[in-house]
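tool_log.txt
---
The assistant was asked to compare two proteins side by side. It first ran the structure predictor on the initial sequence, then on the second. Raw inputs and outputs are pasted verbatim so the downstream comparison step can read them without reformatting.
(1)
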Amino acid sequence: MSGDILSQNEIDALLSALSTGEMSAEEMKREEEAQRVKVYDFKRALRFSKDQIRSLTRIHENFARLLTTYFSAQLRTYVQIEVASVDQIPFEEFIRSIPNMTLINIFEVSPLEGNILMEVNPNIAYSMLDRLMGGAGESPSKVDTLTEIETKIMMNLFERSFDNLREAWSGLIDIDPYLAEMEVNPQFLQMISPNETVVVISFNIVIGESSGMINICIPHVVLEPVVPNLSVQYWMQTNKKEPTPEQSAALKGRVKKAQLPIIAELGTGQMSIEEFLQLEKGDVLSLKQKIDEPLVVKIGDLPKFMAQPGHLKNWMAVQVIDVLTEGDEDDE
């Protein structure tokens, strides 16, 4: 039986079948055991858990936002990019899913071993090229091989775009992407074994009036060293980054210049509300403090020093004679 909740009518029908002998308990048991068996395709081995796929999705959603800003500035037009899907499939299936003539950027991501691919739909690639060459961003219906000059222009565009991937991956690992080569025919790619599991991140991209897909293909062998870092526990632990030495020094300098109120307390006393309401100019208040006892000096609301009152030139002053430690947070 499936994992769905049965309605009352379905339950009554099952009980009726058991009571009339149309179905025996043994048959139901065998049927349930038979349905527990699931077909497993070894060519589509799932190497990543759902938790790890979610982490990769979050990373590349951030990459999509950064890429949107980058392409909008470079192409000087409206660009919108968002993650459409994140799947793990055999490399052979990915190759079959992309057009015979397309734009494939092959990147090295040191210190990780292996390469990752960025496949750009021809409609989007030619629209980008048209914008870079001063056009309106139109895409030709016929896809031709890029000239040497066009190839160089596109390589420069995508090589700089991977600075955004470096930033998006910074919470996972510091990488140094490098554009190794550009291909237009996926059949020439002999990067990994056809049955090797890859993660394919598909982006929907809109450039002006043109739209299409960009796919990033990451082999399992590339991600294998950082797979433990894709867990939720790792992201929660590394959510707060340690400040750099320069940031720590700047923060320390600002803290040292912060202004703090200093209060030299002459003493305390008590009076009733009636006495308070009758106070007039010239009245003398009695404090619970002897004239020869040191004063308490407070920093903010915390007592920190003992001091004796006096004068410094034309200013009233106190001289610190002792340091109090009971107000320190370290002693709590």
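(2)
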Amino acid sequence: MASVPNKQPFFKKLSKGFTVGAVITGSTFFHGPPVLALGLTKLFKKSKKVDETNIRITNSWLSINNWLIDYVLPNTKWNIEIDPELELNMNGRYLMTCNHQSWVDTTVNQYFGLTRMPLTRFFTKWELIFIPFVGQAFKILGFPMMKRHTKIQIEKNPELKTRDMDEARKACEQLLSQPFTLLNYLEGTRFTKEKHQQQQSQYVNLLKPKAGGLALALNILGDQIDALVDMTIVYPDGVPDYGEFWLGEVPRIAVNLRKISIPDWVLGGNYEDDPIYKERFQNWVDELWQEKDQLITQMKQNLRNSLNEVS
């Protein structure tokens, strides 16, 4: 079996790290202020033209990142498979699910989607709004931002249980005025062996899925989307952290996209208040997750076989 490429010499790594860091920082400070400035105008008047301009600016920022990936990190080999039944275009409306292992997942999604799909938003934690430029841009660009409340907090203030859902509902409804891709990491957190053991997950490669966010999105957007897309990401040589990725130390990344059929009964159900529908929806998501788990195992095997053929 062929070996994974060795780590880069220190000075080459330092040079690459400085270049990537400088370009990303400069690009963020160049693109961030216009998005924030235009976003402030929405406090006084909503404007479709402002939204479209902000998306163009954001796509320009992402294109800089993709240029770095293609020309500064050319050692990363990409294996991308797309379901023939899945027709993607820049004017579509898509819901997307994905497994979650690293912050690199979001960069992979953006790298893949920039020229194939509308700008990807995802359900994210409210606390990220405090990250300079990036967090505020999430809010301005319509990312559904969720506050996590403990059971004790909800018991003291039951209103908190529905407040988050109301905010997410508003964010989803606002997306209907434009093409969009709305991503939901169903696991709710990054996969680790420790979390997998703590959950006693029945899946080999995945944590247990949390279906509430997807149920909410399908309830609001389901009859107006072009497809429910499932993205599967595999790092065959080990899950990288963000620094390893941008230093070019990720030899291979495999991505699979498949179209998920939405049963008629899914649309129009009430996940929060109908226990029968909730159980049925959760069982449906569990079946999708079982298929995904098997797909990841097969992708890993195919990648091992291809590496053996090369060696």
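---
observation on (2): The chain has a mean pLDDT of 87. The chain has one domain: 75-310.
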